[in-house]
């Protein structure tokens, strides 16, 4: 960053001109807090999202599926670890973030507060939620914070493989027995409301003004949701699946999708840890932290002094 950037006005001008901010650069405290909040939410969502599919590794129907879902879970945890490293350069330690997550003080996407009930859930999650993630992440490829900007292409590239993996699961099930097709429909019916509010509530421009000005947000929530609906509603319908929203339709006059407005207050409560599987998932996280504490302590302990044999 240019050495003379020391005021918020100069900082914004630098960003708007295409400048990239590094961890060691001067930045307004509000910008630093916003970057930490944004990346922490992303990291925790990657991490907690892996829990939805982790238990299906042993229950996958074939060895090939087991290998594929194991690789996906590893990818998601890897994304979280990369993002936690980015946070550490901003003064937010990984240990602190994970403590807050286990205690229920940290936030992650409301989508990941729900339980999985069938193998079809793994297909819906990988295909549709990862597709929604890519839409959000691609909007940030030109974000102003350099370390985040550099890790996003790798995350998007791997998420694209997850989408193919999930779509292939759903296609295989839809070409199978009536029971398998019904399993897909049941899973879609349960997951459609969380998918609809995946990108968050519509926000007025003034609420996102600072994030847009700082290039920490690339697009409005509703724009991303409209893109998701435009791509995936026709594909789901072409498969013969029914979307569980009687109001869902494309309005040719406004060129926008109409849908049943979610109860955004309920969504906020879910995101605060009051979802159907929130506490169960956090308990899994707490138990894992406790059972594996010895590993972290061993790695952090000082090496034993060398013993001279002379």
TrEMBL record:
Chain ranges passing through the membrane: none
Gene Ontology CC: one annotated term: cytosol
Molecular function GO terms recorded: phenylacetyl-CoA 1,2-epoxidase activity
Region (Disordered): 271-310
Pfam families from the UniProt entry: PaaA_PaaC
UniProt feature, compositional bias: Basic and acidic residues: 282-294
SUPFAM superfamilies referenced in this protein's UniProt entry, alphabetically: Ferritin-like (SSF47240)
Source taxon at top rank: Bacteria
BP GO annotations: phenylacetate catabolic process
InterPro entries registered for this protein in UniProt: Aromatic_CoA_ox/epox, Ferritin-like, Ferritin-like_SF, PaaA, PaaA_PaaC
NCBIfam families, per database record: PA_CoA_Oxy1
Protein name: Phenylacetate-CoA oxygenase, PaaG subunit protein
């Amino acid at each position: 960053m240019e050495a003379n950037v020391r005021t918020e006005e100069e900082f914004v001008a630098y960003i708007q001109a295409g400048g990239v901010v590094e961890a060691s650069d001067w930045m307004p405290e509000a910008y630093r807090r916003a970057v930490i909040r944004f990346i922490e939410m992303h990291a925790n969502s990657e991490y907690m999202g892996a829990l939805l599919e982790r238990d299906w590794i042993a229950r996958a129907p074939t060895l090939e599926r087991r290998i594929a879902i194991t690789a996906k879970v590893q990818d998601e945890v890897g994304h979280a670890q990369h993002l936690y490293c980015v946070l550490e350069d901003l003064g937010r330690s990984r240990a602190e973030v994970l403590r807050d997550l286990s205690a229920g003080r940290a936030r992650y996407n409301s989508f990941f507060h729900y339980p999985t009930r069938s193998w079809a859930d793994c297909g819906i999650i990988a295909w549709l939620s990862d597709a929604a993630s890519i839409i959000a992440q691609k909007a940030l490829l030109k974000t102003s914070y350099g370390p985040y900007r550099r890790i996003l292409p790798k995350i998007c590239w791997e998420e694209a493989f997850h989408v193919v993996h999930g779509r292939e699961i759903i296609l295989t099930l839809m070409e199978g027995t009536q029971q398998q097709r019904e399993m897909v429909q049941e899973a879609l019916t349960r997951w459609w409301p969380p998918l609809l509010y995946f990108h968050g509530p519509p926000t007025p421009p003034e609420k996102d003004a600072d994030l847009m000005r700082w290039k920490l947000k690339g697009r409005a929530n509703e724009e991303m949701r409209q893109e998701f609906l435009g791509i995936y509603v026709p594909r789901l319908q072409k498969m013969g699946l029914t979307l569980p929203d009687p109001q869902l339709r494309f309005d040719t006059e406004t060129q926008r999708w109409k849908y049943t407005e979610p109860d955004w207050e309920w969504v906020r409560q879910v995101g605060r840890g009051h979802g159907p599987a929130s506490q169960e998932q956090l308990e899994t996280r707490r138990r894992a932290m406790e059972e594996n504490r010895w590993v972290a302590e061993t790695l952090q302990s000082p090496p034993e002094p060398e013993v001279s044999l002379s």
